[in-house]
Design a protein that fits this description.
Helices cover 43% and strands 13% of the residues. It contains 11 helices and 8 strands. The protein has an 8-stranded parallel sheet. The protein is elongated, with a radius of gyration of 24 Å. The protein binds 3-methyl-2-oxobutanoic acid.
């Protein structure tokens, strides 16, 4: 079994130009598959609100939702670096609230790190969490929790002025003591600049290849999440089709009496058939 990687290994990988492989997972079986596939990190993203719970966005997701899914993932992937995603409302109020909730992830769900969205505006939150001893990852660029005020899921940093904000955010995240940074939905040229400029690992989702590793949402890459598919997703499977076809075949088998078959039932213990039949007969008479 490969050894669980941590902050130091990820720093080493950055130095050696080795890419980190990172995926989201929200449940026990997916976490097991991720660990079996040898992926380096798992994010229990608040995207679970859309991918698993059927909300339109991530805003309704609660700390309880996140903790519960992180626990399931930890059970499925005991030897993989697991990151909990701080949901909207769990760090907006104060540094103290941010630390309290980050510590909950750590103590109750046994995660290795937490992630929160924002750069300059959450610098003091990141610092407070890092100072409390919890590893924290920043997340800048396209940040889904603020997609409402940003006018939807839109690429960021595509003009010089907007790129300036992204760079300032990246510098703030590193300055605050984050151990890593996730950049989402920005041009690869900007990703490359930030990756070269920061000493902490920089990972991308929808921000191209010139960085220290990639994250992808499992429901997107498995073809399970149907509402929309961002441009930056590559589909590696079509589980929606596989699952729907399996459900249809099951329904057809039940309707036509093909399932369950003799091989799917528990027979009466050998040797007591006659006694069994007599017992049923006795009930018939009542
Ligand atoms: O919740 C999540 O899965 C995320 C990714 C979109 C980066 O934060």
């Amino acid at each position: 079994m490969p050894k669980k990687k941590g902050r130091l290994e990820f720093l080493e990988m950055k130095k050696n130009g080795e890419k980190v492989t990172w995926i989201t997972a929200y449940d026990f079986p997916t976490a097991m598959f991720a660990e079996a596939a040898g992926l380096d990190m798992i994010l229990v993203g608040d995207s679970l609100g859309m991918v698993v719970l059927g909300y339109q966005g991530t805003i309704p997701v609660t700390m309880e939702d996140c903790i519960s899914h992180c626990k399931a993932v930890r059970r499925g992937a005991p030897n993989t670096f697991v990151m909990g995603d701080m949901p909207f409302g769990s760090y907006q109020i104060s540094d103290e609230q941010a630390v309290e909730n980050a510590v909950r992830f750590f103590k109750e769900a046994d995660v290795d790190a937490v992630k929160l969205e924002g750069g300059v505006r959450v610098e003091s939150r990141i610092k407070a969490i890092a100072d409390s001893g919890v590893l924290v990852c920043g997340h800048i660029g396209l940040t889904p929790q603020s997609s409402g005020p940003m006018g939807g899921f839109k690429a960021q940093g595509v003009t010089p002025d907007s790129a300036r904000y992204v760079i300032e955010d990246a510098l703030a995240v590193e300055r605050a003591g984050a151990y890593a940074l996730l950049v989402e939905g920005i041009p690869p040229e900007l990703t490359e600049f930030i990756t070269g400029r920061l000493s902490i690992p920089v990972y991308s989702i929808g921000a191209g290849w010139p960085c220290d590793g990639q994250l992808i949402i499992c429901g997107d890459m498995l073809g399970q999440f149907q509402a929309f598919t961002p441009k930056f997703v590559k589909k590696y499977a079509n589980l929606a089709e596989v699952i729907t076809n399996a459900f249809k075949a099951y329904a057809e088998d039940v309707r036509t009496g093909k399932f369950p078959g003799d091989e799917h039932v528990y027979h009466i213990r050998k040797g007591c058939e006659a006694e069994y039949a007599a017992m049923l007969k006795e009930y018939e008479k009542r």
